[in-house]
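Example 3.
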Amino acid sequence: MTVEHPSERLVSRYARGEVDIPADEVWAVESHLESCAVCRARLADVVEGSTAALVQAVWTDLEPQLTPKARPRWNPLRGLAGWTTPAMVPWLVMTTAVTLVALLFDRFARSPDNEVSVVLLLAPVLPVLGVAVSWAKALDPMHEIVASTPRAGLYLLLRRTVSVLLVVIPTLLFAGSGTSTALWLLPCLAFTTGTLALGGLVGVTRAAAGLIAVWAAVIIAPSVAMAQPSFALHHNGLPVWGALFVLGALVVAVRRGAYADLGAHR
Amino acid sequence: MTNAVDTAPTTYAWEIKASGLVVRAGARKVAVDGLDLSLGTGVHGLLGPNGAGKTTLIRALATVLRPAGGALDLLGTAVGGRADQRELRRRIGYLPQEFGYYKRFTVREFVEYMAWLKEMPKRDIPAAVQRAVERVGLADRADDRMKTLSGGMVRRAGIAQAIVNDPTILLFDEPTAGLDPAQRLSFRELLQELGTESCVVVSTHLVEDVAAACTDVVLFADGKLVFQGTPAQLAAAGTSEHVGDSPIERGYTALLNQGRGSW
């Protein structure tokens, strides 16, 4: 198809806005300009200085809005938000600090005849602290808004628990070197599933507080008072801890529907 | 984004249907006491004095509180039973009266996080977030941290997270608190737009919000339904003897004063 381009003179008259061009010619020029980039460029060349300046000014204003913004700086909190909440971070830091203090105590402050390892005594309840915060209404500002979402419930609780364990277990692995891994890992896991199982009934935070209190009263206090390792943290006790871990996990699996309610978030 | 779920015929008559609904606030207080209510598509203004149980009702509708008695059906699904509510929750948007956020999140991150929690498909999230942020007029602040926003902007970010999943049931608890007059006007426009496709429940004690934006008024006092009808019917209930600056306010006082003192 041959296309007839408007003459140079007609284009420049059109650009100047002359009123004596016949209407049908104006129409023909405009419809041609819409589809012809070559003539648009010719039109741009013949516009007067003031018009060119105006176009340039408009373009300067618009350009920043039209160019896509660079992605904002990557926020590590955002990447981790599916696993841990910003509200949990200080607690995870504190858990790590407590472990390290216990380690320092074991290494340097303990008398040689005292066989009680503070790291071992604290190991079972360390993850419980983090899990307690994972659904704490008072500590998590987004609690109410999250509680109404489909992911709220066991799914999110388990994700957050995993993130707690991913912090606690490596720390203990470092702090507990020298003792058998099973001796702290099994009680640690048993307490974690125990908190989740009990949490389905009374709320995770309450369950955690209760378990920590019981542990402190029944095991930690007597061991420290008598300076003797507790019967519970002996190799003979490992099958019991294993059984408790499995029992806790089973209770959580059976009652998984109960976690979708606020009851589990108290 | 039309999919099979959008075009499938509905299997329920009302988006929200409560019969004899009882909801407790705390261990003892019964905040919603034997409520019968049916709400369909449109904007429903939930009016009532402070302490009437509006927030408790909204929380029950958001599936955050479990009903203590009666029946509550949302989108044809019974709430409070053993059934999995994830499917239902995906289609609910909820703005609590007081909502928290992580201060270091930007508006976009906050809305994206909520979209993820609402189990939206990963590839739909960026576009849906951008659209929600634009609808509440926060596009120019989308990449600013939440802690730098004013109170009205935070509330608009809250509205954006509620609408990001294009919910069928939208629950707003006191959404206009903290908005300036111009923002309230644009919020009412947004409400009317949302009400054409969804069942929107707006709890408020500002009578003029109801008059301007709602297709239906639910008057609620002491945990019980006092009145349900159009704003015009509410206005017609009041006479010049009743206290109030507008017909709707007079209707409101007329209906609430039945059988009790002015306070």
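The radius of gyration of chain B is 18 Å. Residues 218 and 228 of chain B are 5 Å apart (CA to CA).
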